[in-house]
Amino acid sequence: MSTLSWRALLSEAWRDCLSGTARVGILTILATALVGGVICADAFSLRSVSVEAASFRVHLGSVRVLQAQGSIDGATCEALSRIPGVRAGAVRSVESGLSPLALPASSLPLYEVTPGTVSLLGATTADPTGIVLPEQVAEDLGTTQGALLPLAHGQAEVAGTYPWDENDGRRPGYAYAALAPVPAMGTFDECWYESWPHSDDVDALVRSTLVGSDDQNAQVLAMNPTRGTAFDAAGQLRQRPTWWAWIAASTIGATLGAAATWWRRLEIASALHAGLRRSDTTVLQLFEAVAWVGGAFVLSSGICLTILSGAPPSDRSDLIRLVATEGICAASWTLIGVVIASTTIRERQLFAFFKGR
């Protein structure tokens, strides 16, 4: 038996691809549709979970509030932010509201907040030297970040703005108010906190912010009860409708690879009869399969990237890595199917293959 060099095998595979013998075009289309289609469906499912999780956080569904009038230690509440995945800040009301000169007949409720609260609300700044207004109030008053807001008695610098839409079900009272960032010193009325992903341990730990041992009047509330009490992102990923995509894609890929090779069984048996080693025919089939598997991988990757471009930026890279892993797994099993089918073809089957043709 003769042994071909790697260069000769590559040259032969190249000629088979150009001549159409390897059926690169049709196999690329089939692999993209069957294998890539399954993976793209999973990419769409992953994006949906990610978007739902982001919406849950944007609407403050992940934020909880520990209420205890004048019994929250501001420094302890603020210190919760040191825990990975946790953001927290304290809030207390001020008796005298804010009276903008543009609203002589009314005043804005004023709340003192620690820097963590301002960050939790997604405000444009956490400058402790000014006030932070809801975006709609700032627009109604005709003021912007960095401007001086005339008051009935003096003026205040607008340090930033924050979004607050009570129409989505979040607790009322902060769409028409003003926040004054202050150091986390003294006692506060509430401790706002978010643990993402949600942790019951943080719910228990937040009670350490209470001053004194009597916490019977303290209660934990959801900032936006209409969004549910928690969002189990990990559970949603595990239970997504297409969790089996990598298994299906790998199975279909292996079947397609084996079928594509078996389709050329007469050609392979003839090559063995002509004196080629089984290792040579297997490597040759593998080289040719790389052409259409690689083409399908590139096409499917483009489609998946387009789908995942709609995912939140914070999750996008993780989702891309997950889908890429599924694609690599499916591509590997496709090539394994080619190898398995090629090694099962024997020279002695040549007559049977020829007769069956």
TrEMBL record:
Annotated transmembrane regions: 243-263, 283-308, 320-341
Domain of life: Bacteria
UniProt keyword annotations, A-Z: Membrane, Transmembrane, Transmembrane helix
Keyword Transmembrane helix: yes
Protein name according to UniProt: Efflux ABC transporter, permease protein
Organism: Schaalia dentiphila ATCC 17982
